[in-house]
Write a structure and sequence with these properties.
heterodimer; A: 109 residues; mainly beta; 5-stranded antiparallel β-sheet; 11 strands; globular; B: 115 residues; 7-stranded mixed β-sheet; 4-stranded antiparallel β-sheet; 0% helix
């Protein structure tokens, strides 16, 4: 069983739609990360959170520590949001990341 | 904003050859990492490095792999004798410290193709 599970694996949305990507994890963590990977391959950190909720522009990330669950929301989605969104958890002495498999998001105009 | 830079962006090598992937982490960061992503798969942890030594390594990081911080700015990953299955995207990352509130910064990756 994967330590970090994401759903859905693939998501197609129309421009303007509200999008939710879910992440569940089964290990103890010190923080949960949401990352974005574009077709060129580079990885960008969107959020790191250990409790509650964070917002940056049209992106919102929430975490429920008791449920071991996090969601990433995108409001008013745009084609430029098309990318792979990856959930990862960190913990332990070295704070290494354990990655989920990612959600491929395509926002159509 | 400071960036993690990786070179080269793409490396093609023949099986059995040695390759060195290079990274320049953010200058005041203390923790350094290598991750890899085989095409179509999730990103996997390889190794973490702190205070000039390996702090943790995965089972992927066998004797064919080594890391070095030779001059206080570069952070390198060496694969001694490449295999076909080493073909992947390799990401370097750094963070200021290992506390839970220190975000990770990634480089753009080196795509390694072993033929």
């Amino acid at each position: 069983k994967n330590e970090v599970e994401q759903s859905p694996q693939n998501l197609t949305a129309q421009e303007g739609e509200f999008i939710t990507i879910n992440c569940s994890y089964s290990v103890g963590i010190s923080a949960l990360h949401w990352l974005q990977q574009h077709p060129g391959g580079g990885i960008v950190s969107l959020f790191m959170l250990s409790s509650g909720k964070k917002k940056h522009g049209r992106l919102i990330a929430t975490i429920n520590i008791q449920e071991k669950h996090s969601s990433l929301h995108i409001t008013a989605s745009h084609p430029r949001d098309s990318a792979v969104y990856i959930c990862a958890v960190s913990g332990g002495a070295t704070n290494k990341l354990i990655f989920g498999t990612g959600t491929l998001l395509a926002v159509q105009p | 904003e400071p960036e993690v830079t990786q070179t080269p962006s793409h490396q093609v090598t023949q099986m059995g050859q040695e390759v060195i992937l290079r990274c320049v982490p953010i200058s005041n960061h203390l923790y350094f990492y290598w991750y890899r992503q085989i095409l179509g798969q999730k990103v996997e942890f390889l190794v973490s490095f702190y205070n000039n030594e390996i702090s943790e390594k995965s089972e992927i990081f066998d004797d064919q792999f080594s890391v070095e911080r030779p001059d206080g700015s570069n952070f390198t990953l060496k694969i001694r004798s490449t295999k076909l299955e080493d073909s992947a995207m390799y990401f370097c990352a750094s963070s200021g410290d290992s506390s839970y509130n220190s975000p990770l910064h990634f480089g753009n990756g080196t795509r390694l193709t072993v033929t």
